[in-house]
Amino acid sequence: MGEAKRKQGTDSGSNMPAKGPIKGIIIGIVVVLVVVLAVYWLTRPVADPDELPTAAEGAGPFPAHEDRVGVSVGPEDASVVVREFADYQCPGCASFASVAKRIKDEFVASGDVRFVYFDFPLVDIHDNAMLAAQAARCAGDQGNYWAMHDRLFAQQGEWSTNHNAKGVFVRYSEELGMNPARMQRCLDTELHREDVEASLALAKRMGVRSTPTVLVNNIPMGGAQTWPKMKAVIERELETTKP
Questions:
Q1: CATH of the domain at 151
Q2: Domain count, the chain
């Protein structure tokens, strides 16, 4: 009986699948998938030139003198200007913020493009949008406009429906290395409300109806606000505006 049991145990063990080969097969499959995805990512079509937005027939240039009511970064004589009309409380604007950052990092930093941000707070539906726009401009008084701009979009979920959004903005200013008391005074006195309202008035005169509205020179990007298409249009404009 003992011998029979030992044989039975030996036979049962011999039928167990080998773990080593199976593990190797799984690893091989994963490696193949990674390679396939990498090849697709590197060779995928970036943007079909025929599908890229163009200026409307007969459209004149954007009135560049109006840029004074926005906040800009980049060379004033840049041949290509990207303009964004946006609301800090708008979810779509928060999504576009990562694309806008890439534009600034890759084209503005190189000196090829200027970027202008226009405040278009949708005050009828976004209770904290006007205050947020003022907070960014107050931060600009301390040399931190774009740092606050990025923080407002990154933390939109925290302050957008907060009944003490002002207190949140003051805290952000301190976290970003600013003087919080100065931010508090700026917001309490609404120092930049007229500046925001001037930008809002421009948006209405230009017929802007939604946020974000983005233009590359005089080309409205519409729904083509993805990084590949933004990049392709900017590069096309840089090429066509070369002296």
A1: 3.40.30.10
A2: 1
Q: Mapping DSSP to helix (H, G, I), strand (E, B) and coil, where does residue 86 land? A: strand
Residue 31 domain-assigned (yes or no):
no
**What is the structure's pLDDT at 49?**
64
- Is the pLDDT assigned to residue 41 strictly greater than 50? no
The string of DSSP letters for 41-71 reads HHHS----GGGS--PPTT-----GGGGGGSE
- Tell me the residue range of the domain where 89 lies: 61-240
Alpha carbons 194 and 177: distance in angstroms, whole number: 26
SS (H, E, C) 124-178: CCCCCHHHHHHHHHHHHCCCCHHHHHHHHHHCHHHHCCCCCHHHHHHHHHHHCCC
37 belongs to a structural domain = no
pTM: 0.80
Does pLDDT of 10 surpass 50? Answer: no
